Amino acid sequence: MEDKRYDVWLSQCFPYGSPLPGRLLAQYGSAKAIYEAEEQDLASCGILTKKEAAIVKRTLIERADRILNDCAHHKIRVLTQNDPDYPERLRNLFAPPTVLYVLGAFSGIDEEPVVTVIGTRSASEYSLAVARQLSADLAKAGCTIVSGCAVGIDAQAHRAAIEAGGKTIAVLACGLNVNYPAENGKLKRAILNSGGALVSEYPPGVNVTRQTFPVRNRLMAALAVGVLIVQAPVRSGTLLTAEHALEQGKELYCVPPCDLFDPNYNGVIRYLRDGAVPVFAAEDIALPLYAAFSEKLDLSELKGDYGYAGIVSMKGLSKHSPGSKWNKRDENETVSQEKTRSKSEKKQETVETMFDEIHKMVYNHLDTHPKTIDELAVLCQLDVGTLYSVLTDLELSGAISSPVGGRYVGGEEVK
């Protein structure tokens, strides 16, 4: 605890999120060495201005003592960059936190397939349902769900992960003993009771301000291998986390807007245009992660199809409810479905009569949801060379198609 005393002191010398503590630690080797350095030495080290060096020397070690006493009182763990449980994912940041304050189970994070789920506090019922479904499915598959414990999307992501029997971590924009937001006090307890964790860069007693959220957001992005935006308007603070994810080289996933004309959904559009991964089901996130986390993920837990019926169900609507616009299209739909069935039957017949078991296996892993060759390689347990050959045969026969570049679509299952 004596060594941590100096790290906590160093964290109080500069604004939270400053890169200066990290640069000083790299040069001096330890927080204690920085504490013991003369002001003139600090001012001439090439990192600090004279004013900053003076502030460092004026920062009293007693501040650290008070923080450590508060942590002991609230049973909060203090992690420094020398602690084995301090995540490498955070250590690699441009401005890594000097100290982390932790409640709950927070070890081995670097080996976990962590997905950060974020979105607006003023989410629609549709987006809340999507956040619940995606978070639950990802948690069942073995992903750890990170969010910010705010009302709205954050709370739904945490709750869904807990109910699915998974692990979730809340990264807070305040001290761990601060009751914010007040309505999520029960949720925080549930996170801890389910084996999750509460984490903050802020010591006990620090309240939320407009500045604490952007500083916190970089940690939410850094802990994860990818960040999922469920819903965000153009000016949402959610997009700050998205920017951090891109700067850190993390994968960015976006749920496409439910309504292109509703500005409450349009924050993700430019990211989708610039190459963010559109997410229609948990597979869109979990499958690409499987190669790196095969021992952690169980893809058999994924449902595989939300489709139109699933979305209608999430909205609480009925396709054939009175007054539904779909009633007007029933007759056309019936004709269309008959044509689709006819095409599917022909595809099935082609695969059944022309191809061997490997071709049938690949065909059976394709449905109306496009899949990349990497996703198929994981599902079929085939090398890419063999898979390319099989896909070429199937495509030339007309059994499958690739309407979206690099993605393949099939039809009904062949027995």
TrEMBL record:
Note one Pfam family from the annotation.
DNA_processg_A
Spell out the residue ranges making up region: Disordered.
Answer: 318-349
Tell me, which GO biological process terms does this entry list? DNA-mediated transformation
Q: Which residues form the DprA winged helix domain?
A: 356-405
Gene3D superfamilies linked to this entry: 3.40.50.450, Winged helix-like DNA-binding domain superfamily/Winged helix DNA-binding domain (1.10.10.10)
Q: Which family does it belong to?
A: Belongs to the DprA/Smf family.
The entry's protein name is DNA-protecting protein DprA
Q: Which gene encodes it?
A: dprA
